[in-house]
Amino acid sequence: MNIPQIESNFRELDDILHAGYAPNVISTAMELGIFDALFEEPMDARTLSDRLGTVYEITEAFANVLVALNLLAKNGADYSLAPLSKDFLVKSAPAYQGGMIAMTSQYGQIMEKMPETLKNGPPEAFDSGMWANAEFMKVMGQGVMGGSIQDVTGFISALPEFPDLLRMCDLGGNHGFYTMALIDRNPQLRGTICDLPEVARLAKEVISEMGYSDRIDTIGCDLETDGSIGKGYDLVLVSHVIYAWKGHLEDVFERIGDAMVPGGVFVSNHLAMDDDCCGPISGTMMELMTRLGGYPTHHLSEEELKSALAACGFGDFTVRPAEDGRQYRSLILAARKLE
Description:
7-stranded mixed beta sheet, Rossmann fold, alpha/beta
């Protein structure tokens, strides 16, 4: 027998392959209500299986996987919630992310067609109409509660201009939650959600439902056309929407600058990968799924943002590195419209 000489440890690959089943485990745990049950009190596997109406022997192995994933803790025979689950996987939690997790699981449909798409390209162009869905909008709004809204509002409210801001535009603002959070911190600030006409109509309903109609209005506009996004803004926030302009960001930044007052602040909140685009794994996987789905990219670098903004009359940058993000690896960048 010729025993091969190997330099690597197969266990690393084995762990990667088995970790691929984690989304199924998490989705099943949420469906069964495991996190909600353990939120009430710690319990052993027998009590947990009785509560859920599941098979004890399988439930025990299932709970142990959740411990290995750092979603449960185990003390003796009793299982309890880990902080990650308590914050994001209990339905009554303010930052519950069940909707976003369910939406992310749908990416599997794209990945199943990966060999064919790698050879032939995406089957059809990206459909922007997906944003004009009330249920999707609410899921996305709840989704930002998992760390993104805290990061963005904390960054903007710490800017020296924040106390004096009067009018802001949330460009591509969809659900409008960022604007709601910011005007809560500044009693004189008024906001405008600017998005596709059908999205803006739904956003207006959400804004009214949330009780912000007196301070937030909407404008229906397609950035691909010459429709107006309004005028006189001293703050423009753009969050996860300008990826499609990668390579010619000046087109959208020129329009943004025209809508702002001199000295106004522009803030970008967008995903960013490592400089070599080979990490982190969540970023590289998102980029792959994005391109498989027919959309150009889902990441913008600090260098390309600064370069394009400077070409359009912006400067005096303030940056919060992507590594500091609590929910996603999002780069938050502020630039001032120069006098």
